[in-house]
Design a protein that fits this description.
Layout (H helix, E strand, L loop, with lengths): L1 H12 L7 H9 L4 E6 L2 E6 L2 E8 L3 E7 L14 H5 L5 E3 L2 E4 L2 E5 L6 E5 L4 E12 L7 E7 L5 E4 L13 E4 L15 E2 L2 E5 L7 E4 L5 E5 L6 E6 L4 E6 L4 H12 L12 E3 L7 H13 L6 E4 L20 H10 L3 E5 L4 E2 L7 H8 L14 E3 L2 E4 L6 H9 L2 H5 L4 E4 L19 E4 L7 E4 H23 L7 E3 L2 E2 L7 E3 L7 H16 L5 E2 L11 H11 L5 E3 L15 H16 L1 H14 L4 E2 L1 H4 L14 E3 L3 E3 L11 E5 L4 E3 L9 E3 L2 E6 L8 E4 L2 E5 L14 E6 L5 E7 L11 E11 L2 E6 L12 E7 L7 E4 L2 E2 L2 E4 L4 E7 L6 E5 L6
Parallel strand pairs: 13-29, 19-20, 19-32, 20-21, 21-25, 25-28, 28-30, 30-31, 42-46
Antiparallel strand pairs: 1-2, 2-3, 3-4, 4-18, 5-6, 6-7, 7-8, 8-9, 9-10, 10-17, 11-14, 12-16, 14-15, 15-18, 16-17, 22-24, 23-24, 26-27, 33-34, 34-35, 35-40, 36-39, 37-40, 38-39, 41-42, 43-44, 44-45, 45-51, 46-50, 47-48, 47-51, 49-50
Helix pairs in contact: 8-10, 12-13
The structure holds ligand MIG.
Ligand MIG binds next to loops.
Amino acid sequence: MIRQALLLSALLASPALSAVRPTNLQSSVLPIRSRVVMRPDGMDVWSGRRLTRVTALAVGAVRVRIGLEGQLGEDASWAVLPEARQATAPVTPLTWGFAGAGLVVTVDPATGGLTVADTAGHVLLKDIDAPARRTATGGGAGFQLAKAMPANWRYFGLGDKTGPLDRRGGSFVTWNSDSPFQETTDPLYKSIPFVIPVGPDGTAAGLFLDNSWRGFFDFGKGQSDTLRFGADGGPIDYYVLAGPTVKDVVQRYARLTGPSPLPPLWALGFQQSRWSYMSADEVRGIAQHYRQDHIPLDALWLDIDYQDRNRPFTVNTKTFPDMAGLVSDLKQQGIRTVAITDLHIAFAPNQGYAPYDTGFVGDHFVKKADGVLYVGPVWPGPAVFPDFTRASTRDWWGGLYKDFVADGIAGFWNDMNEPAVFNTPSKTMPLSNLHRIEEPGFATRTATHAEIHNIFGMENSRATHDGLLKLRPDERPFVLTRASFAGGQRYAATWTGDNSSTWNQLRMTVPMLLNLGMSGFAWSGADVGGFLGTPSADLLTRWIEIGAFQPIFRDHSAKDTAYQEPWVHGPVHEAIRRRFIEERYRLMPYFYAVADETARTGLPMMRPVFMDYPDALDTDCPSDMVFTVGGKLLVAPPPQPESPGWYDVCLPKGGWFDYWTGKPATPRMRGTRQVVQEKPALDQLPVYVRAGTILPRQPLVQSTMETPVGALELAVYPGDGCAGTLYADDGHSLGYQRGAYLRQTVRCSVTPTGLELRFDKRDGSYKPWWHDIDVVIHGWNGPAPTATLDDKPVPATADATAATLTVRIPDRRDISFLRLVRTASDH
Ligand code: MIG
């Protein structure tokens, strides 16, 4: 009675409610089980004791919090930005629901179940069972939810889990695990409980379960029409993100959890790693080999053996006698150094090991349920684990990088942070271990490892990221983490962990990296050549070719495998590999412009074709191996990469050019599809450019540190909506956040007498390296036209064989028009 009265008064006090009052009054007289109480930014639904609070958010999402016993969980999150959670949106009440944030939410009065639709009336997610308790491990109160899975919808996301790109039919667990993997291994290193349902016409939504406990997602495996998901404990707190397109969903998710920030330019270059280069001399030898063989390289990685007895933040001074000298000599050659720094601190009391001593004094390590320090075996032997859910512990951890930063080490690698623990069946620490949450925005309390496990690696990488920023306040931190959680893209890039040197694993890199990109992690890579095992010559060659178009491009291999640097299989293979690495560097201005787009929007560099071209959702066009770079370059490796046979590549509607010949593609129609047939020899990889693209390219360099000699190239592929963007900055500082960047869009249009290039206003104050621009028009037939730059003549050269026209123009901030007019006799 009392609650009833309170609800009613809340209802009447609510400003936006007149339209819904009759319904609610009605609900008290009709035999209906649920009651709706409108709020200015959403509604509360009472179904018996169960409270469902639905809140509309300005990012274009609704947040659903459910208290099965009437109590909502703490309003705190490791993943979702506070500003995104707090910026709610006004709603318009409807009968049994509301419209707001671009969505329409309605309640089934009989069950309290929710249906979320878009404003065009497409149902995006619909409850089919009431939320329920579920038996759980780890001491929490588990729960599960069930949503309808319409027959022709597909489901993407969940990060780099194995299996096909489309999760439908699969079942996955979210539990960060040190898990060298094969085709069906699950769970893996990261937990990203974010899913993108996509309808047959490209209508898309997002579903993010903000819960750090061990969880699961069953995409119709248990029951073919049911998406079931849940967790072993913690609050029922999830978000449904509006589309209408996949791109919109990905961008909204980036506003919810933060986009991947702009990486330093060198991180987009080619990188060489191995477990391990055992000495400074060996590292110098690798660098020298790269430079002698003229293979571009931007980074060399130091794996655990550079350390003294595997102790993080130490150096084996016998094998690495002068770290600062090594780092600076490599830098002289355009090569940055990245060092591994695992989170486990050697349990080494009274040995003068500062990370342990200072950590112990500061009380920074995780304890067991009985309050005693937890010690578990990892690489250094007995080890202790920083309590990364404390802001002060993260501060302390960040400070440990001081000496390595002083040595000039550019980037850091956080491995083993699931956390991995040896000699225990669970491969991690006891679930009953206690972490302390001492954190702005959270109630101060202890939490069991069962609750913290999945965010532990993310908070480790956060501590590293924030520490580096403190030590080098004007440098972009570069951190590579193995374990992470939703939102972890704010702090670190990632890689897919311990893959193997097999053809199948090369094939798996594409869906894994695509789903990572759709799940917020734009900067990710798979060990090129495979980590476990030794690649054949052909496999390494193909892997380098495909890796050259993937976001993080790092060759890495395990101990006890053969070396797999590009030269190991002799000059023929080396030449092919060099050519693809070189192409990556020629395309660097395009890659970097896409990185700028990623930082601003959250759209990843590596995208499924349907992200930009929804007609690619067509089911007779298998796409697990095909991807785009920034939507404009379509990379189509053989679906069975070991097979030299013919295969079909579907080109989305519209025009395409062959990237390598620069000539228009000539697909044939198969039904409504445009198809090209490919049978690439080992030294070829099919790549297409969308007609209507302006691709910035640059002269070859051996490192992003080297200033290119010659002109910037603008490769113009005429077609609808023809445009391209230039982006440049100093490549490493945060100056771009203060205006020290260059961003400029260039557009082209075919005119009755030729072609016209229009340069939009140049944004930012950065002065780029180039002084001239070579505009190269592809698909140009006939003699050179009259070319004028803002009405002054400029030289133009036609190449009949290549079907190109090249016009060199001097670079200026204020260029506006390049006009190409064919002389009267030619048109
Ligand atoms: O237990 O540091 O995934 O990339 O080379 C193995 C050694 C530990 C696992 C990483 C791998 C790295 C290796 N590490």
